[in-house]
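_Backbone structure tokens_
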Amino acid sequence: MYPPELVIPMEKELTDHGVEAVKTPEEVEKIIKSPGTVMVVVNSVCGCAAANARPGVILALEHENKPDRVITVFAGVDREATAKAREFMLPFPPSSPSIAIFKDGELVFMMERHHIEGASAHEIADVLKKAFDQLAASANTAQS
């Protein structure tokens, strides 16, 4: 377990921008299985990747299209909630940080740590915004 003084500001960076911190596996399952789109951010203390992942998520959430709900679990802290989220991310291996998007409980987008490492916050945000736009386009097509 990481010291709270290290983790709290990293979690707060996301929750201050409307991301919901989820602490139990039951909450994770209920939210992911709910109708609509859900983005799950697996937060991490990893400075090489998470330092840009969090700002990338925040920038992406300023976009006109975005998921209905955005939650975060913290790897190494919210162990059971993170494990439950990762069950839904299979067949992708555990990765922190990582960002997944679900539509009606089905995994439709996955950004693993190796996609995040070395990318700037703006590059991460651009990838997420494209995913948001694709989800919005598919929703509009389904409604037609």
Strands lie at 20-21, 37-43, 69-74, 98-103, 106-111.
